[in-house]
Amino acid sequence: MASTAGAVLAGMLLAAVPMVVAGAQAVPANDAFAAATVVNGANGTINGSNVSATKEPGEPDHAGSGGGASIWYSWLAPTTGPVTVTTVGSNFDTLLGVYTGTSVSGLTTIASNDDISGSVYQSSVAFNTVAGTAYRISVDGWRNNAGVPKTGSSTLNWSLATAPVVPTNDAFSAAETIAGIRATVAGSTVGG
Hints:
Largest sheet: 5 strands, mixed
Order of helices and strands: HEEEEEEEEE
Number of strands: 9
Strand order of the largest sheet: 1-3-8-5-6
Distance between the termini: 91 Å
Number of helices: 1
């Protein structure tokens, strides 16, 4: 009887010890929406991985695909203007979704994309930002016919266009005076 009790106790102790599978990769730190990696600035690139990432209950299908290996980023738009967000540089077939909202099950889609083209399997979106708005960005893997999402090394790129410099003589009241019989003036209407 003592040997049976010892075996049960040993089994309980083993069950309490976390098992580590050789070669298994840890879940990415930004696997959960609530643990999104914060990115800053008008332009940037950040590398990551969606290997061992999961899909959360209530998480939307990015670009209309089930995915299943999403990682999350949060970006606060520093200014208002057009931005382009891509996954160019990722080594797998990506899905990209950009949202606003504060919970994974209550997101509003701003833009999403599966493939840039029929032969480029990374993703790209462009949209107009509002300064001070927090945008939630998901990079996920396209789910193949067997139901397995693509995974690998990811690259997230963002580029917010800066406002053009308005010429000093843009307004009629600030017109540049041209004197003389003949004159040559160089100028531009860009930003005006």
